[in-house]
Design a protein that fits this description.
single chain, 479 residues, alpha+beta, Pdz3 Domain, 2-enoyl-CoA Hydratase, Chain A, domain 1, six-stranded mixed β-sheet, 20 strands, 31% helix, protease, endopeptidase activity
């Protein structure tokens, strides 16, 4: 694998994460439609007929129609998608946080799948897999050369089926096979711990169905472990977003009752709404308020929110609300900039359309679409500076993003990304190794977390050495 491909592999997760969305799941039928463009529809039918009759080999009619729908929707923006049976199943797994597999959080290292952490109680956990283990083979397939998505698909499957993983454990300098029986896994999207007496860290990696319940449980555990917390770090780095109601609830946990969290605006009446820090805006019908038993101190405890270029959508809603209400200090890097809301509308029992229906606005009326949240305090990824920040894609870099038609390309950002890519490729060519991955979030080597704790303690903060702001965006924020 060349240095270029190694760098691309390291960026794959961030790119995919950045494309994930804030969404509302609802069925919606419109009673009135504007007149259909008959001439264009006749052309579509004519093309369909020609392909059916004249193409070099027979084609599947259903696939042609599915591809036509996919192309129509893909031309709108990066986040509108047609779901066929397979992709709808994968989408539902992502929002529920449930899937069938072995139960590991993974990354990539030297072209291999790295076990970041086995999920507690999962088949992988019971089989003895450890953080840092490298997976070299999945059944008969070598992992080297596979993308992370390809590796994940090979490890997932049907319940009660077996998969054999070949593990290389560096600490013991040995390889060994492990046979694991797949089962349904529930992803924990919230992690938390007391870092030191008086200071705690709580990380939300994605906004799924159970994220708010898990958040409330973790906060309860933190305050039981240390009832006198003097500061809290809410970590939203690389959080690609998810369910809008989760973002509203998480914001409400820290904000006064009934203040505005986010507003939305679009073409149809249902897309024009204001969401407040009140149970009626996030509690599902028939459920109780998951935040009702949170300690009152959570409303006033000094708070730092960590964000980076991978913080998108729902995580940006939370950061924007807490920033506008001056409830927290936002630290890190400028966020992804996905300021749109998607609605999922069923088309049949196993197909659906995810379509952009609104833009969202922070309590102060800011649209962060293609801009992102600018932190109050800029931080680098490491004490030496940034390693991968310039390489990460943001909303403004995506083709057909909302508002993109009248925007000029950010040539300075493109140049910085190309220079950073070349630098990493040259380093890879010299050392024959991929760049050293960043420390795990929440670890003792997590530089931004250390700076967040310094902020809470009133100690000096090592602000960014390589701060890069978009002048046009900052000028727009000042107006």
């Amino acid at each position: 694998m060349t240095g270029k491909f190694k760098v691309a592999g390291l960026l794959a997760v961030g790119a995919v994460a950045g494309a994930l969305t804030t969404m509302q799941l609802q069925a919606f039928a419109r009673n009135s439609l504007s007149p259909l463009p008959l001439e264009e529809l006749q052309q579509l039918a004519a093309v369909f007929g020609m392909v059916k009759s004249d193409y070099v080999e027979p084609v599947d009619e259903k696939k042609l129609i599915s591809d036509a729908i996919s192309g129509m929707v893909a031309g709108l923006d990066p986040h509108s998608v047609y779901f066929d049976k397979k992709t709808l199943k994968e989408f539902r797994e992502g929002t529920t946080g449930k899937f069938v597999g072995v139960g590991i959080e993974i990354g990539m290292e030297d072209g291999l799948v790295k076990v970041v952490s086995p999920i507690e109680g999962s088949p992988a956990f019971r089989a003895g897999l450890k953080p840092g283990d490298l997976i070299t083979r999945i059944d008969e397939s070598a992992v080297k050369g596979l993308s992370m998505d390809q590796a994940v698909k090979k490890m997932r499957g049907e319940p009660n089926t077996k998969v054999q993983l070949t593990i290389f454990r560096k600490a013991e300098n040995r390889s060994f096979p492990v046979t694991i029986v797949r089962e349904e896994i529930r992803v924990q999207s919230v992690r938390a711990k007391v870092i030191e007496p008086g200071y705690a860290w709580i990380r939300v990696s994605q906004f799924q169905d159970r994220t708010v319940d898990d958040f409330a449980r973790k906060v309860d555990e933190l305050y039981k472990a240390d009832p006198n917390l003097k500061g809290l770090v809410l970590d939203l780095r690389n959080d690609p977003g998810g369910l809008l109601e989760g973002a509203v609830a998480l914001s409400a946990a820290f904000l006064p009752q009934d203040v505005v969290v986010v507003s939305t605006n679009g073409q149809i009446a249902e897309s024009r709404a204001t969401f407040k820090a009140s149970p009626e805006f996030y509690v599902r019908r028939g459920s109780s308020d998951p935040l009702r038993k949170l300690p009152a101190a959570l409303k006033t405890v000094p708070l730092v929110v960590l964000v980076n270029e991978g913080s998108a959508s729902a995580s940006e809603i939370v950061a924007g609300a807490l920033q506008d209400h001056k409830r927290a200090t936002i630290m890190g890097a400028q966020t992804f900039g996905k300021g749109s809301v998607q609605t999922v509308r069923p088309l049949s029992a196993d197909t659906a359309l995810k379509i952009t229906t609104a833009r969202y606005y922070t309590p102060a009326g800011r649209s962060i679409q293609a801009k992102g949240i600018v932190p109050d305090v800029w931080l680098d990824e490491t004490a030496e500076g940034n390693v991968f920040a310039a390489l990460r894609m943001r909303e403004a870099d995506l083709e057909k993003h909302l508002g993109g038609a009248d925007e000029k390309k950010d040539e300075a950002r493109e140049k910085a990304r190309e220079e950073a890519r070349k630098k990493l490729e040259e380093l890879s060519a010299k050392t024959k190794e991929a760049p050293k991955p960043l420390p795990e979030f929440g670890s003792a080597e997590d530089f931004p977390l250390v700076q967040a704790l310094n902020q809470l303690k009133g100690k000096p903060v090592a602000v960014s050495k390589t701060q890069s702001e978009r002048k046009a965006e900052l000028d727009a924020d000042k107006r």
